[in-house]
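Dear support,

We are seeing what looks like truncated structure output for some complexes. This example has two components. We would appreciate it if you could run it in full and send us the complete C-alpha cell output so we can diff it against ours.
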Amino acid sequence: MRLLLVEDNERLAGLMAGGLARAGFAVDAFGSLEEADAAVAAADYDLILLDLGLPDGDGLAWLKAFRGRSQGIPVLVATARGGLGDRVSGLDTGADDYLVKPFEMDELLARCRALLRRPGSCLATVLTAGNVAFDTVSRRISVGGRAIDAPRRELDLMEILLRRAGQVVTRPVLEESLYGFNDEVTPNALEAHVSRLRRRLAEAGADAAIHTVRGVGYLLRAEGAA
Amino acid sequence: MTGRLGIGVPRQRRSVAQLITVRLVVVAILVMAAQVVLVAFHYGLDGSRLGLRVAASEAERLADHVAAGADGRPVLDLPEEHAARYRRHPDAYGFRIVDGRGNVVAGMNDGLFTVPLPEPATAPDLFWRTIPDGTGQVRILAQRFDAIKPGFLICVAIAADPDHTAWGVLAHEVMDHVAIPMVPLALLLLAVNVFAVRRTLLPLGRAAGQARKLDVRRGGLRLDAGEDLPREVHALVSAVNAALGRADEVLRFQRDFTANVAHELRTPLAVLLLELDGIGGPAAAAAKRDVQAMSRLVDQLLRVAQLEGLAAEPPARVDLAEVGRETVRRLAPLAVDQGRELEFQDDGAAAVAGHRDAIAGALRNLVENALRATPRGTAVTVVAGPGAVIEVRDRGPGIEPALRDGLFDRFTQGDRRTRGAAGLGLAIVAKAMEIHAGGVTVAGRAGGGSCVRLLFPEPPPP
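Here is the complete output from our reference environment:
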C-alpha cells in the first residue's frame, strides 16, 4: 500500500509517516501542493492524506482539481478545521473521509484501513474484528481460524457489521441490505438474525461481540479494543 | 443577558408630556393671576368705576324682582334677606323705584338720595353722580328699564359698603374677563400639547421597543432610523446604532480570535499526541491523558466560538428525533468501550426551528457527562419528545436539588470558579439553549439518577 502524505508541518508529517510506515504502509511525505502534483503524476498511490492549510494554497481547491483528473484514489483529509460546515464542504469536494486534528495514530490507521477496505478498493478480501474473520470472496466466517456455518442472511449481516466494525450500523441500513424490495420484513426478523449470529459467535469463542444500541441499531466491537 | 442594555424604562420616571403639561399649567395659572391683579388694579385706580358697577348690578337685581301687580301695574316683591340688608344698614344702602309717570313704586332708606333725581320722562339711560359727604361719598345711580315700562327708573344710593357687595362684583368681573376667556384656551393648549408631544415621541417609543428586543449577540442588528424620526430622536438612534456597530466588531473579533487560537492549537496538539505515542511508558501515558483533555478543551472552545456565530444565522427546521438518534449512533461506541449502554427512544418528538449543529453539540455534551456519571453496566437513555423536548437520563448519583437551580445559569454568566472543574461542557449546553430561546431543567429520576431536559419553544405551525 503506497500512501501520499501532504502536510506542511514537518514534525507532524514525520510522526505520521513513521506511524504509517510501522503499520506497513509505504509513505511519501510532501509539504506543498506543488510537490503533491508532481508526486501524483509520477507514481500510483492507493491513498492520499491531505492537510488543508498548505503554504502554497488551499487543500480543498487542490482536491477539487485533482478529482477532475482522478476519481479512483481515496482521499483522507486531516485538518485543524473542524466545523460542521468544513466537514460538509470537504466531503462535497471529494474527500472520502475527514479527520480533525489532533488525532491518535490508532485512529489514523483505522481510518486509512477503512478507506482502503471500501468496495471497489484494492484491499484484502478478509475482514476481521478480534479473532472473527470474514472472507468476502468465499463468504465464510471463521473464529480463531475455525470456520463456522451460518445461513445467507447471517453471512450478509456479518459482512456489513465487519465492514463498519466499531461503528453503529442503523436498523434501516441493515434491513435495506438484508432484504430485497419484495421481501416481507417482519418487525422481529432482524432481532432474530442478530441474536442467532450472536449466539453462534459466542459458542465459537469469538472475542468480538454484537452490541445492541436500542432505538438505533447494532455495533460490532472487538473486546479489549479501546 | 437580555435587557442589560439599560434601555428599559425605569418606573416612576415622568414622561415629557407630563413635564410639559405641568409647566404649561403653572404658566397658565401665573398668567391668570397676573390678569386678576390687572383687573383689581384697573378698578383700584378709579374707585368710582367699581362703584358704578356695584350700583348698576344692584339696580339689575332689583329689576329682577319687579313684576306686574294685581292691577297690572309694576310692583316690587323683594325677598326678605335682600330687604334685610337695607334695613340693617340704613346709612349705607338705599333705593327708590319710580314708574314712568313719576309715582314711587317702592323705596327704602330714601334719605340717602340727597340730590334731585332726573324726571322719568327725560331721564338719560344711565344717571350717575358721586356726591361728597362728610366722611366719604354717596354714589347715586338711576337707570332706565324701558323693558318693564317706558320711563321706568330704578335708583340706587350707596354711601358705604359694610356688606362688601363690591367683592362679589369684583369676583364677577374676574370671572367674566379672566376665567371665561382663559380657561378654555389653556385647556385647548394642554390638549394640543399632550397630543403633539405624544405624536413627536412615538418614533422614540418604537425605537425603544426595538432596542429592548435587540439581541446584541446576533450582531448586525440596527434600530430603524427612518425618515419620520425627529432630528433629536434620530441623533439618539444613530448613536445607538453606531454603538451597536462597535459591539458587533468586538464580538466578531472575539469570536474569530477564539476560533483562530483553537485552530492554531490543533496541529501542535496532534504533534504532541503522536510524539507521546512514540515515547511510550507510564509517564507518556499520563502526559497523553493531559493532551487529550486539552484537545477536548480546544474543541469546546471552538464550539463556543461557533455557537456565538450561529446565533447570527437564520434558523432551519431541526428534527429532534433525528438529532437524538444520530448523537446516540455516534457516541454508542464510546459508551460500549466504557462498559455502559446508550439507548435512544422516540416518544413523538417535534421538529423545532434552530441550528442542528448547536443542538447536537449540546446533546453530545450532556450524553458525555451522563456516561461519566452512570455506573458501569447501566444505560444512558436519550429520549426525544413528546413535543419540543429532548432529554438525557442516567443512573448516576444525581445532582443535589440545591445545585440544580442555576447550574446552567452559572455558566452563561461566566463564573470562573465553576468553569475550571467542569470544562466548557455545560457552558456549551447553556449557550446552545440560549440561542434557541429554550431552557434546561435538571430533575431527579425514580430509581436513582438524573434527567436533564432541553426544552425548545413550541415550533410554529407547519
